[in-house]
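User: What would this chain look like folded?
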Amino acid sequence: MKRLRKIALNLNRSDWPNDYGYQFLLRSRCLCNYIERRLKKEIVELIDSTKIVITGEKRENSQFYINSSNIACLNVPFNPETYDLLKEHEYNAYMVNFLKEHITNEPNICNQEANKLFDIITDFENEGSINKFIYKKKINKDKKLKIILEQTLTVSEFVLKLDIQKSKESVYSKIILKTDPDELAFHYRYKDIVFEDNFLIVTSRTSEPLIKLNLDEIEHKNNT
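Assistant: Here's the prediction, encoded as C-alpha cells.
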C-alpha cells in the first residue's frame, strides 16, 4: 500500500480544446487542493500509487491503468452539455459529484480508504466548499505585531492576503498576490515571512521578494 498524496481532475486534450480542458482543471483545484492539504495530515492509501488522475473523455465506459510514472489513471465518460450549463457557484458541487461518482470505479483504492476520502470531501462541503487557510504567521516581538499570510482558492482565482495585527486589531491588510487557481502559477511566488531591520519581507522561491514593507511607516500611519 502507498499513501495517497495528490489528486487531479482533468479532461483529455485530444477530445477537447486545450483552453477548455485547462479551465476544467482550474475549476477543480479548489476541491483537489483542499483534499491534498488534508492528506498531509490524514492517511489514505492506494494499492500501488501515490497520485490519482481522473480524466473526462469521449467514451462510454471507464478505463483504469497505472502509467509509467506510477500514477493511477482513470479515464471516464464526460458530458460537456451538462458541464457547459453550469454557473460559477455550481462548479464546486459539480467537481464533488464528479469525483465521488468515479472514485468508486477506481480499483486501486479499497472501500475503507475510499470512505476516508469521502469524509474529507464531506468536510469540504460542510465548510461551504471554501478553501481558505492560514499559510503562515509570525510574531514581531519588538513591535508586538502578528503577521498573517492567508490563502484562498476558489474556482476562478487564488488570492494571498497579508494581514498585520496589533493587540488583535488589524493595522494593515492587503491582497499581495492574485493568480489563476493553479499551483504552478502561485507556489513559487512566496515562501516565508522574514524580519530584516525594520522591514517585513515576504520572500519568494525566486530571487525577488513578493513584498517588502517598512514597519515603522505602518506604525506611524496608525498612530496619527
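Residues 26 and 80 are 16 Å apart (CA to CA). If you want, I can go into more detail on any region.
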